């Protein structure tokens, strides 16, 4: 049997490329992933708008249940392993941040040829990632049995339900099968490979889903949710093909394999394959992952159990629109931020100039991110509720405006700030917390779970708030999670300061200016007055609304100009002359040159 030893490394003696600061690399990676998310989500969004013209709320409700079935299996199978692997650093971790010749799959191959990561480190993440598929097989069987057993007669009467469920199960297992390749791509920072795999798979999924639905509509066939199942299967197949094509050569050049192989027969490895420290961390995170999934998707589980299918479809539509910003922007930023937060020292580490510098970078990054989130949240709260009914009528059609979707979408706009703040704070916690602190957080989340269940029961059964009540329950839970994470971050920064000038987070540096808040309130008032007829608005009202929104955006950009200018990457300023005038660097350079000439 093949064996990988600790000293089996590739060594390159070429001169290393120009080094980029960790914070700049994190920002560049975040921007790259954000662009990918925007592209794929925009494509999915456009296709969904077409599908909504062919689907009833009932069918969309069943499709949402099957999507929840797949997401639950994926989360319980791989999430804790992914978080644990974020704490696995290569021997040359600083060099992995270097880039040669830009980004993209072809440049990923060039960078891998420089010997990024040892064979042992690559094989460690591959072996651990295979556990995801091992967990996924019994979980898939269990969830499929549970779904068919608990589904009501209306759901079971949906055309091709059983076939669609089994296709979803197969697609989910195929996604878990490629988890080792994904782990290698993430460890080696092969963002180009990850982006192209996700984009091509999403494009194929959209085309297959749309083509199947249109074909069924034109031929008069009732295929139920089969188009969604076929799209999901095509997504998994393309994802496997792209990752295998790009990652297998990288593993081969580094003497590793995408199959599970023995590493070292010592006490550090279970069965000579699985790193004991990584397994311990993953096991610690697994309990927390259960609570996270229930808290994050608890509203989906509740509405699937308590609401009618048309109500489920309306809620799913509204939450998809409301969560579009979170999926496109917040998640990639959180993922990239973990790379920076993962380099932070533990609170017991003695402070040094190097550790203080890293902590200062993390504090600045976290402060700027929360400030940026606050501006986006201001737009969501000011513009979202009054614009929800007419936008929903335009995008989804008139039949969706008579459901609960407009009310749920308006309520979801108030949840967006809480989702953003909680996501980045928990990214910080997951990167630096010790196993004992993670267990303490899990205990706190148990209390939050009880609070969520109680709030949901009151909202649904006592107050009869229906789907909007689930948004309220989510908000109560998010506030509780934010409170714990905020306290953790402040305690951590206080313990690691060590007199090095590192301060805690300051709320005053994260909120919009008073003038931005005033402009937001004025825009909200104008839109509410203009759109007082709800979804039934004319061209004149829409033009007035567009002018209001444009003036609002310009006003916020003016009052927040100093912050926005500070967020422009230096690399972009160097390449684009217009940004040099915007930031004032060209003016400073010209004045300095004039003084030198004199």
Automatic annotation (TrEMBL):
Membrane topology listed for this record: Multi-pass membrane protein
Record bears the keyword Plastid: no
InterPro entries per the UniProt record, alphabetical: RFT1
UniProt keyword Amino-acid biosynthesis present: no
Biased composition (Basic and acidic residues): 88-111
Sorted UniProt keywords: Endoplasmic reticulum, Membrane, Transmembrane, Transmembrane helix, Transport
One Pfam entry name: Rft-1
Domain of life, per lineage: Eukaryota
UniProt-annotated stretches for the region Disordered: 1-22, 87-115
UniProt-annotated location(s): Endoplasmic reticulum membrane
Membrane-spanning residues: 125-145, 165-185, 197-215, 235-256, 277-295, 301-318, 370-387, 407-434, 446-464, 542-559
Pathway annotation: Protein modification; protein glycosylation
Function text: Intramembrane glycolipid transporter that operates in the biosynthetic pathway of dolichol-linked oligosaccharides, the glycan precursors employed in protein asparagine (N)-glycosylation. The sequential addition of sugars to dolichol pyrophosphate produces dolichol-linked oligosaccharides containing fourteen sugars, including two GlcNAcs, nine mannoses and three glucoses. Once assembled, the oligosaccharide is transferred from the lipid to nascent proteins by oligosaccharyltransferases.
Protein family per UniProt: Belongs to the RFT1 family.
Protein name: Man(5)GlcNAc(2)-PP-dolichol translocation protein RFT1
């Amino acid at each position: 049997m093949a064996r990988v030893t600790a000293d089996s490394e590739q060594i390159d003696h070429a001169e290393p490329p120009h080094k980029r600061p960790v914070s700049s690399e994190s920002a560049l990676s975040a921007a790259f992933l954000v662009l990918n998310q925007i592209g794929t989500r925009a494509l999915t969004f456009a296709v969904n708008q077409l599908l909504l013209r062919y689907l009833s709320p009932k069918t969309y409700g069943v499709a949402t249940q099957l999507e929840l079935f797949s997401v639950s299996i994926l989360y319980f199978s791989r999430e804790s392993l992914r978080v644990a692997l974020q704490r696995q650093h290569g021997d040359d971790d600083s060099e992995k941040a270097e880039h040669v010749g830009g980004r993209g799959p072809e440049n990923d191959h060039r960078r891998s040829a420089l010997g990024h990561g040892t064979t042992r480190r690559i094989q460690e993440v591959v072996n651990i990632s295979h556990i995801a598929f091992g967990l996924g097989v019994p979980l898939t069987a269990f969830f499929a049995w549970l779904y068919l057993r608990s589904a009501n007669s209306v759901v079971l009467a949906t055309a091709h339900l059983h076939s669609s469920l089994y296709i979803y199960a197969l697609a989910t297992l195929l996604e878990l099968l490629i988890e080792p390749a994904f782990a290698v791509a993430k460890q080696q920072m092969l963002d180009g490979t990850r982006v192209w795999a996700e984009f091509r798979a999403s494009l194929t999924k959209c085309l297959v889903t749309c083509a199947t639905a249109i074909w069924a509509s034109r031929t008069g066939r009732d295929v139920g949710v089969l188009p969604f199942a076929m799209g999901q299967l095509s997504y998994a197949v393309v994802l496997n093909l792209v990752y295998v094509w790009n990652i297998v050569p990288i593993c081969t050049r580094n003497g590793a394999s995408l199959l599970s192989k023995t590493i070292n027969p010592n006490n550090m490895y279970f069965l000579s394959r699985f790193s004991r420290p990584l397994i311990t961390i993953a096991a610690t995170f697994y309990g927390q992952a259960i609570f996270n999934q229930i808290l994050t998707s608890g509203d989906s589980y509740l509405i699937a159990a308590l609401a009618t299918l048309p109500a489920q479809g309306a809620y799913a539509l509204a939450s998809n629109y409301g969560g579009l910003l979170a999926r496109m922007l917040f998640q990639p930023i959180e993922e990239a931020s973990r790379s920076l937060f993962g380099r932070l020292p533990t609170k017991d580490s003695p402070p040094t100039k190097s550790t203080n510098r890293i902590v200062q970078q993390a504090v600045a990054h976290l402060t700027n991110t929360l400030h940026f989130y606050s501006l986006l949240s201001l737009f969501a709260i000011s513009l979202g509720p009054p614009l929800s009914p007419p936008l929903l009528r335009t995008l989804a059609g008139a039949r969706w405006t008579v459901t609960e979707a407009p009310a749920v979408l308006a309520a979801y706009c108030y949840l967006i700030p809480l989702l953003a703040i909680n996501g980045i704070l928990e990214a910080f916690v997951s990167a630096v917390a010790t196993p004992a602190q993670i267990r303490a957080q899990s205990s706190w989340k148990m209390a939050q779970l009880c609070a969520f269940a109680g709030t949901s029961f009151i909202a649904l059964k006592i107050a009869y708030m229906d789907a909007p009540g689930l948004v309220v329950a989510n908000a109560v839970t998010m506030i509780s999670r934010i409170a714990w994470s905020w306290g953790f971050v402040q305690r951590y920064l206080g313990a690691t300061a060590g007199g090095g000038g590192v301060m805690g987070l300051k709320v005053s540096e994260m909120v919009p200016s008073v003038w931005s808040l005033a402009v937001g309130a004025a825009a909200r008032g104008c839109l509410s007055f203009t759109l007082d007829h709800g979804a039934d608005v004319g061209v004149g009202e829409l033009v007035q609304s567009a002018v209001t929104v444009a003036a609002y955006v310009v006003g916020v950009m003016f009052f927040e100009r100093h912050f926005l200018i500070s967020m422009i990457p230096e690399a972009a300023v160097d390449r684009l002359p217009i940004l040099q005038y915007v930031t004032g660097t060209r003016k400073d350079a010209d004045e300095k040159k004039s003084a030198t000439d004199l």
